[in-house]
Amino acid sequence: MEAKPKLYYFCGRGRMESVRWLLAAAGVEFEEEFLETREQYEKLQKDGRLLFDQVPLVEIDGMRLTQTRAILSYLAAKYNLYGKDLKERARIDMYTDGTLDLMIMIASVPFKPPEEKEENYALIVKRAKTRYFPVFEKILKDHGEAFLVGNQLSWADIQLLEAILMVEELSPSVLSDFPLLQAFKTRISNIPTIKKFLQPGSQRKPPPDDHYVKVVRDVLKF
């Protein structure tokens, strides 16, 4: 029996959440070890398990994978979520890089000074509505399929849904001008494995709170 992938990260979203999404969408069960102390982190470093002394770390198929994009591209390829040829993979890479830019902006705000947060969140919503979501609305219109690339679910679809839901936490009506994205959100959310991941009690993590920020700062010392 194949061992379950094991994820090493904080008990929060950060750079591991997209990995959780991809595994869940693929219907793959996984284990997690949450970093809560500096000592845990230093032990991973001393044991040589962190290539660049950074998390996330995923143990899978006898490998220790670090660097978020490397982890995600390996999982996408392994679970048939990476297109059928190089051209489709190039499009998937473009689209996931775009959504990742947006999600990193959101993930960084909790670590900023309190007086800057509201302004930053407002800027993110504005950029989503003027830069990112119009692009994906046009992609869906031009492609004319249920999915962003080809005619089957890919990493690009999964990560776009993740990004949409993150922005909706900041502005629930953000998709009001994007009917194709609204339909896309409903369609992808109802894929059985994803629907299960979106239910309470799954391994999906909530938005970061002050406790999460403190743990990350204490462990990484920044």
Describe the structure.
The model has no long low-confidence stretch (mean pLDDT 94). The protein has a 4-stranded mixed beta sheet, covered by helices on one side. Strand 3 and strand 4 form a beta hairpin. The chain has 9 helices and 4 strands, in the order βαβαββααααααα. Helices cover 57% and strands 7% of the residues.
| Biggest beta-sheet profile | 4 strands, mixed
Q: How many DSSP H or I helices?
A: 9
Radius of gyration from CA coordinates? 18 Å
Q: How many strands appear in the DSSP assignment?
A: 4
Span of the ends, CA to CA: 41 Å
Mean pLDDT: 94
Helix and strand pattern: EHEHEEHHHHHHH
Q: Which word captures the global form?
A: globular
Strand order of the largest sheet: 2-1-3-4
Structural class: alpha+beta
- Percentage of residues in strands: 5-15%
Estimate percent helicity. 55-70%
Uncertain spans:
none
